[in-house]
Amino acid sequence: MTIRVLVADDQAMVRSGLRLILEDQADIRVVAEAADGAEAVARARELRPDVCLVDIRMPRLDGLEVTRALAGPDVADPLRVVVVTTFDTDEYVYGALRSGAVGFLLKDAGPALLVEAVRAAHAGDALVSPSVTVRLLRTVRERAPARAPARPLSERELEVVREVARGRTNREIAARLFISLSTVKSHVSGIQTKLGLRNRVEVAAWAWEHHKVD
Questions:
Q1: Residue 18 contacts residue 9 (beta carbons within 8 Å)
Q2: What CATH number did the domain enclosing 33 receive?
Q3: In Å, how far are 131, 194, 202 from 85, measured between CA atoms?
Q4: Distances from the Cα of 147 to the Cαs of 68, 207, 214, in angstroms?
Q5: Strand (E) or helix (H) holding 187
Q6: How is 8-22 classified by DSSP, letter by letter?
Q7: pLDDT tens-place values along the chain, 214 residues long
Q8: Nearest-5° angle of CA 205, CA 207, CA 213?
Q9: Domain limit, last residue, from 140, 166, 181
C-alpha cells in the first residue's frame, strides 16, 4: 500500500528536500505541497492524504491552527498530522500536541527518522524525535503537576509506560514485550484513562516524574 503524504512548509527548498527523501521510498508518494497553512488545510481536506507533514510556523495559518483544523478534537474524521519543526518555540509544539498531532520531528533529524515518522503515523503509532521529547517533557512538567493514578497500574501497564517514555512506537513495544499490536493499543488507552492523560507524551512525562524509567 502506498502512503499518500502532504508536505506543508513555507520554504520551497524544504518542501523539495522532504519530497526527495520521501519519494525515494517505494511505499511513499507526496500527493501535494502547500506553501502556507490555509493552503495546507484546503489541500488536505480535498485530497485526504494518509499523513500530513506540517511546519509549525507558516503564513496565514500556523502549524497549530492547521493541526487543530485537520486533527483536532472537534474534527469528525481527523487526519494524521506530524509536525516537522526547528523547535525554536516550545509553546507552539505543545499547542500542536494538544491539538492532535501524532508526531514531532526536527528538520535536521535525518532522512531515516523522517521516513519512520511517516510510516508510524500511517500505522496509527506515534513517533517523537528523541531530542524533541526532552523539551516536550519539560513543558508538560511545567504545566501539569505530578499526579497519582486514579487506579493502580498493573505491572504490564508499567512495562508499556516505560517503553512509551523511551519514545518507542506501538509496534516496537509489541515486539519488545512479545504481545500483539492490538494489546499494546489497549494498554496505552487504559493507561491514559487511569492517569487522566490525553496523549503519549503526557504518559512519558508521568513516567519521568514518578521515576518509572531510568
A1: yes
A2: 3.40.50.2300
A3: 12, 31, 20
A4: 27, 11, 19
A5: helix 181-195
A6: E-S-HHHHHHHHHHH
A7: 899 999 999 999 999 999 999 999 999 999 999 999 999 999 999 999 999 999 988 999 988 899 999 998 788 889 999 988 876 566 766 677 778 888 888 888 788 888 988 998 888 776 776 666 655 655 555 555 555 666 789 999 999 999 888 778 788 899 999 999 899 989 998 998 898 876 777 787 788 777 787 6
A8: 125
A9: 140
What is the pLDDT, as a whole number, of residue 195?
A: 87
DSSP per position, 135-196: HHHHHHHHHS-----SSPPPHHHHHHHHHHHTT--HHHHHHHHT--HHHHHHHHHHHHHHHT
Cell of 108: 535536521
In a domain, 169, yes or no: yes
The secondary structure of residue 26, as a DSSP letter, is T
Q: For 104, which DSSP code?
A: E
Between β-strands 103-106 and 51-55, what pairing exists: parallel, antiparallel or unpaired? unpaired
User: Residue 90's pLDDT is what?
Assistant: 64
Q: How far apart are CA 42 and CA 19, in angstroms?
A: 19
Residue 22 domain flag: yes
Residue 39 and residue 112 in one domain: yes
Where in the sequence is the domain holding 187, given as residue range(s)? 146-209
Report the candidate in 46, 83, 90 with the shortest Cα–Cα distance to residue 66: 83
* E strand residue ranges, 25-184: 28-34, 51-55, 81-85, 103-106, 127-128
Strand 127-128 to 103-106 pairing: parallel
